Amino acid sequence: MKSTTSSPPKSAKSAGTAHTAEKQREVQRAQDAKDSAQESGKPAAKKSSQPAQAGSHQQPVNPMPAQHLSKPGQEADMALRPRFEAPDYQGSGKLEGMTALITGGDSGIGRAVALLYAREGADVAIVHLDEDEDAEETRRHVENEGTRCIVIKGDVCNPAFCREAVDKTIEAFGKLDILVNNAAFQLHASSIEDITDERFDLTLRTNVFGYFQMARAAVPHLGQGSSIINTGSVTGLEGSAHLLDYSTTKGAIHAFTKSLASNLLPKGIRVNAVAPGPVWTPLNPADSPPEKVKDFGKNTDMRRPAQPEELSPAYVFLAAPSCASYITGIVLPITGSVGAV
């Protein structure tokens, strides 16, 4: 009589895994059928080319005015004036009794930040290079918010001027709580060979030396609850083929932000950066030729450039102890695109 062997009965565990595997294959077959039907039917929808509007009111879209400005660029000369007034932003005393010093505060992002700082109760000192008309207009808007404003003209490349700017702010308002490093120089180049030593030095001295020198002058006057906010750039995160020297400095600013944040943390002084994408300010029409300016910002996911009033609330958030007392050493991307970091 032959002996027979029988397979051992499947355990409950192996039966369970087989059931799950079969369930996964069933789901896969259903998706494969859907994919096949889509391929044989109408083509998949393309990414929308319409500019995105995610705020409470419509912002300008491309084409932007095909205009070229002489450096450093006057906001007063722009065919389409940047929007900085943030009419829907309601102040709530977040910076009440504080004093802010803003470089490049005459126009663009700096002007928008100065206005909201005033709306939140801060006195403001504005540093500018030689855009007198813009600086005076910013002063009027700040004072219309009910706080005080002084205008300081000079070059942040000069360490003596940086000390002077801080001293004048202390003399006018008796204190300093917030430093916003925002002044910048930017000029495109198609090749690294086009960037002379003199030009590279100018970009570095404005964008890196200026930030360092202003911070060094300000720190002795800052105390617990004070903050420094540096304006970086998406180019410092992603690089830029035609802004080689500028993107180099913005990457340096991001590293400086993190390093200084660590250095000043024991004193209760926070240091952060904002990294904007394309923003409609005098900086860009004063850089690019008119035919490129009209498409400025078009390649972002939002298909348009930001307006300064879309950036300035972030500077309030980072400056206000009531909002950001546990935030230091970050680089906040505001780029109009997904996955900027």
Describe the structure.
This protein is of the alpha/beta class. The chain contains 10 helices and 7 strands. Strand 2 (123-128), helix 3 (132-144) and strand 3 form a beta-alpha-beta unit. Helix 5 packs parallel to helix 7 (244-264).
* Strand/helix succession: HEHEHEHEHEHHEHHHE
Report the major sheet.
7 strands, parallel
Classification by helices and strands: alpha/beta
Let me know the number of strands: 7
Instruction: Please give the alpha-carbon distance between the first and last residues.
Output: 75 Å
Radius of gyration: 27 Å
Instruction: Kindly estimate the percentage of residues that lie in beta strands according to DSSP.
Output: 5-15%
Assign a percent range to the helix content: 25-40%
Average predicted confidence as pLDDT: 87
How would you sum up the global shape?
A: globular
Tally of DSSP helical segments:
10
- Strand order, largest beta sheet: 3-2-1-4-5-6-7
Residue ranges: pLDDT <50 for 5 or more in a row?
none
